[in-house]
């Protein structure tokens, strides 16, 4: 339930639910696919709750949806191809990347804004942001834990400032990348349905009240919790028995 609340408010709830699935003995790749399935319900309901905010950026919505779906397909297909050992080995680096990107997102954005003002570099910056968004989708399809954090990082780098708009777009990106990934996971039998449905109910319930969370508390939550969430997950994951059995 708390993981669903964290996802609804800012992102990062999977840093709680993913280690929980590992703790009860579910293999890492199946735990990741199950976590993606469970989180997608919250993403969907959250996107609907923020639909009016999302429509403010209607000029970019098609690009966001298509690149997120393309990335989600690529990432989920990559997950299906890798071994359990390869997946487990990649997790700490993915979490570290999400953490650093969130911390330094504003600094990167300032540099990109300066570069985009140069007529010769403006197109390069726009292309780079498109590639970045595609990579966010790949990240989400491959490893759902951290998708909200890295999605917000992309939006910060892209120059978004409105926290409600950022939350809505983050949820839209997460929905597109996760929903298409779930299709591939279902066909490959990678979802633990009992655990997934149990988690799914918590995510959906939490998303029903997220838009009532006052903006000042939302910003305080973002600033205080997100940089620490991936580090907390690293500590949790490294001490989980199922992790130790795979390494």
Automatic annotation (TrEMBL):
Pfam families: TauE
Membrane topology: Multi-pass membrane protein
Cellular component, GO annotation: plasma membrane
Entry keyword set: Cell membrane, Membrane, Transmembrane, Transmembrane helix, Transport
InterPro entries: TM_pro_TauE-like, TSUP
Protein name: Probable membrane transporter protein
Similarity field: Belongs to the 4-toluene sulfonate uptake permease (TSUP) (TC 2.A.102) family.
Transmembrane regions: 20-49, 61-80, 86-104, 124-157, 169-191
Location of the protein in the cell: Cell membrane
């Amino acid at each position: 339930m708390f993981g669903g609340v964290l996802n609804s408010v800012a992102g990062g709830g999977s840093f709680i639910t993913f280690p929980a699935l590992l703790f009860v003995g579910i293999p890492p790749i199946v735990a990741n696919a199950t976590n993606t399935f469970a989180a997608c319900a919250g993403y969907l309901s959250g996107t609907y709750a923020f639909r009016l905010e999302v429509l403010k950026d209607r000029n970019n919505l098609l690009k966001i949806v298509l690149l997120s779906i393309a990335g989600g397909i690529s990432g989920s297909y990559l997950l299906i191809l890798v071994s359990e050992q390869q997946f487990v080995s990649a997790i700490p680096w993915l979490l570290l990347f999400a953490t650093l990107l969130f911390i330094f997102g504003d600094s990167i954005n300032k540099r990109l804004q300066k570069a985009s003002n140069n007529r010769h570099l403006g197109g390069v910056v726009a292309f780079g942001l498109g590639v970045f968004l595609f990579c966010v989708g790949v990240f989400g399809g491959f490893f759902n834990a951290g998708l909200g954090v890295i999605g917000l990082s992309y939006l910060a780098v892209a120059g978004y400032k409105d926290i409600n708009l950022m939350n809505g777009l983050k949820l839209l990106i997460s929905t597109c990348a996760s929903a298409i990934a779930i299709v591939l996971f279902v066909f490959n039998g990678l979802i633990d349905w009992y655990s997934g449905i149990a988690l799914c109910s918590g995510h959906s319930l939490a998303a029903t009240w997220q838009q009532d969370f006052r903006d000042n508390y939302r910003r305080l939550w973002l600033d205080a919790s997100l940089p620490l969430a991936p580090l907390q997950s690293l500590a949790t994951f490294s001490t989980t028995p199922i992790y130790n059995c795979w390494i």
